[in-house]
Amino acid sequence: MNLTMLDARAGVVRRWQPMAAVSLLVVSALLTGCGDKKDRGASQTAAKVNKDEITVHQINFVLQQQRGLRPDQAEAASKQILERLIDQQLALQKAEDLKVDRDPRVVQQIEAARREVISRAYLEKVGEGAPKPGPEEIKKYYDEKPALFSDRRVYSIQEIAIEAKPEQVAELREKLGASKNITEFVDFLKAKDYKFSGNQAVRAAEQLPLNSLDAFSKMKDGQAMVVPAQNGVQVVFLAGSRSQPVTEEQARPAIEQYLVNERKRKLVEDDLKAMRAAAKIEYVGKFAESAASAPTAPAAPAPAAAPAPAASGGLSPTDISKGMGLK
């Protein structure tokens, strides 16, 4: 059978990485170490490390950064966090003894962390003004995205990432369209000495890039999609799919979260534009030469709201946000 060609732009799905929690621990410890130690006395002590204390407040702060942590996991996680904070405090004390905190590179990193934390806190405050969408807006979004909700499907796909030069793409498209099955196309890649790698996955609609979902929803089993990639192309072959719709009631929490975050993003973007317009910004030296043609720095994204529990058999806001470009 012939493989139908559908073109779509590739989307990037950003996923939570465990190392982010460790980074937060490092920044938290640095900033806490720079503050007034008298403030710590107001919090309950969890451990004493030589002359310093680690408080329950510090542990709770790190716990709040753990996405998807169930209540029954909190106690075990708290103990692990405390042990890491103890190790961190020991390292911090030794660093202070050796005056590592006065190293110019360390000072710069601390200042950079301070700037990031404070500026992000301001942007979060701006985003707090975003109103929640009403029932009519939620229904409108639900109706406009059938591939994500009422006509939602779960896709069994085979992906082939191919390294190719721009002039080779046409040949790949032509051969894929003429191939009877994906095996024949892979044999062609091997015969032509193309460098490629393959992967198989089962992905629901919300786990696909939102800007490619409409193209996926129009595909039939056995068809293929060609997606431009940085070093060539990616071929996505739809081996099979099954219908698994989601009702408006099940999708409502996720839709509400997404729309709120979009409004937060817009508020932050508009606020930064207004501040740039009101500020006197002067580029100096080599930066002045290209300032006129350089694009305006993108607004920092508004932080995602905490996900609400999913309805039984439905989607959680975290799941659906994977296909909506949320963090």
Provide tags for this entry.
five-stranded mixed beta sheet; 15% strand; alpha+beta; 3 domains; 327 residues; 46% helix; Chitinase A, domain 3; two-stranded antiparallel sheet; disordered N terminus; single chain; 11 helices
Secondary structure: elements and pairs:
Elements: E1 5-7, H1 19-34, E2 45-49, E3 52-55, H2 56-63, H3 74-97, H4 104-127, H5 135-144, E4 153-163, H6 169-178, H7 182-191, E5 196-204, H8 210-218, E6 224-229, E7 232-243, H9 248-278, H10 286-290, H11 317-321
Parallel strand pairs: 1-6
Antiparallel strand pairs: 2-3, 4-5, 4-7, 6-7
Question: Can you walk me through this structure?
Answer:
This protein has 327 residues and is α+β, with helices and mostly antiparallel strands. The chain has helices at residues 19-34, 56-63, 74-97, 104-127, 135-144, 169-178, 182-191, 210-218, 248-278, 286-290, 317-321; strands at 5-7, 45-49, 52-55, 153-163, 196-204, 224-229, 232-243. It has three domains: 19-127, no CATH class; 153-243, Chitinase A, domain 3 (Roll), CATH 3.10.50; 247-321, no CATH class. It is 46% helix and 15% strand. The two termini are 40 Å apart.
Please compute the radius of gyration using only Cα atoms. Answer: 25 Å
- Summing up helix and strand content along with how strands pair, one would put the structural category as alpha+beta
Spatial order of the strands forming the largest sheet? 1-6-7-4-5
Strand content is 15-25%
The overall strand count is 7
Averaging pLDDT over every residue, what do you get?
Answer: 80
The count of domains is 3
Question: Roughly how many Å apart are the termini?
Answer: 40 Å
> In percent, how helical is the residue content?
40-55%
Contiguous uncertain segments of 5+ residues: 1-38, 299-327
